[in-house]
Amino acid sequence: MAKKRVPQNRTKQNLPTHKPAKSKIYFKIIPVILIIAIAVLLVFSEFFKKKETDSEYMFRKDGVLTFSDSSGFVKTNADIQIADNEFEEELGLMYRKQMDENKGMLFIFPNSRIQTFWMRNTFISLDMIFVNPDKKIVTIQNNTKVLSDSTYSSTEAAQYVIEVDAGFCDRHNIKLGDKVNWERTQPKL
């Protein structure tokens, strides 16, 4: 067997050298970068999700509603958020953790009929006030049960429904036959 002869004039510079493959370094760095990126995304997504939820379900003052007796004596006023589209009607006061005194939601329906509401995903007990097209209170459902699929209906046809914090009607002596009126202070969305 003959030996292979290496030429003597080869220098260190033109000898092949073994360099570590760049891909091996990338395989070590990429997982670290991915872990850091995922951690950052998780932290910031929770931050933005909380902010979005807070602003989405915060009270929005669209107007002021006045409760008065049959002779026109004003009993109290309440700031109201007006639900007059399908999305807002379905959402109502769900997912809210609290509602300040003298604030509420007014539902405006296109037609007068027996109205039925439930408390699914609603964390605060409410008084539901059902109002006919003449803006006269025809039914009051006091102290509704939270997080319930139980239904609460008007006893007569109603075109408007007002939801306020439980006990509101008792505290302000709101009764059947009382009248309501409201003024929109913000343009309709």
Tell me briefly what this model is.
Helices cover 24% and strands 31% of the residues. With 189 residues, the chain is an alpha+beta fold.
Task: Describe the secondary structure blueprint for this structure.
Blueprint: H1 22-56, E1 63-68, E2 74-83, H2 86-91, E3 103-113, E4 116-118, E5 126-131, E6 137-141, E7 151-153, E8 158-165, H3 168-171, E9 179-184
Parallel strand pairs: 2-3
Antiparallel strand pairs: 1-2, 1-9, 3-8, 4-7, 5-6, 5-8
CATH topology of the largest domain: Jelly Rolls
Tell me the helix content.
10-25%
Mean pLDDT: 82
| Secondary structure: number of strands | 9
In CATH terms, what is the architecture of the largest domain?
Sandwich
CA-based shape: elongated
Q: What class would the helix/strand composition place it in?
A: alpha+beta
Largest sheet: 7 strands, mixed
CATH class of the largest domain: Mainly Beta
Radius of gyration: 33 Å
Taking the alpha carbons of the first and last residues, their distance comes to 94 Å
Low-confidence stretches: 50-56
Structure description:
- This protein is an alpha+beta fold and 189 residues long.
- It folds into two domains: 22-56; 63-184, Jelly Rolls.
- It is built from three helices and nine strands, in the order H-E-E-H-E-E-E-E-E-E-H-E.
- A seven-stranded mixed beta sheet has the order 6-5-8-3-2-1-9. A two-stranded antiparallel sheet has the order 4-7.
- The longest helix has 35 residues, at 22-56.
- It is elongated, with a radius of gyration of 33 Å.
